[in-house]
Write a structure and sequence with these properties.
There is one protein chain. The protein has 113 residues and is mainly beta. The protein contains no helices and nine strands. It has a four-stranded antiparallel beta sheet with strand order 4-5-6-7, with no helix packed on it. A hairpin with a 3-residue loop joins strand 8 and strand 9.
Length: 113
């Protein structure tokens, strides 16, 4: 699997020596790609969250996208690095804070670097 900056995820078949496109993830900018060495390919996009792809079935089995109503969900759809543990759990830490200075400013749900 190859993550590209403009064509999504490409799959190389060793047996036939051919490239093909993996299923669409709703964003062709791939920022991180890894796997568990068995069945799953973990893909982070810069615009449409995180997706788990089944290598065997060639389909997306789980997706995580930002939803401002979900306080426990991912904080952005621009994911630059992805860590999945051996149980398939995603991690995001609390290193970043939001700032609120009513009524002038509230950084909740803003992409600020």
């Amino acid at each position: 699997y190859i993550g590209t900056m403009s064509q999504g995820v490409l799959r190389f078949d060793i047996q036939t020596s051919t490239f093909s496109h993996a299923p669409s993830l709703g964003c062709d900018v791939i920022s991180d790609i890894s796997g568990d060495g068995k069945e799953n390919v973990y893909i982070a996009t810069d615009g449409n969250g995180v997706h788990f792809l089944s290598h065997k079935d060639q389909c997306v089995t789980r997706s995580f996208c930002h939803d401002i109503r979900d306080k426990e969900g991912i904080r952005s759809n621009s994911i630059y690095s992805l860590l999945v543990d051996n149980r398939g759990a995603l991690y995001q830490n609390g290193l970043f804070s939001t700032y609120s200075f009513p009524p002038l400013f509230n950084s909740t749900n803003l992409s600020v670097r």
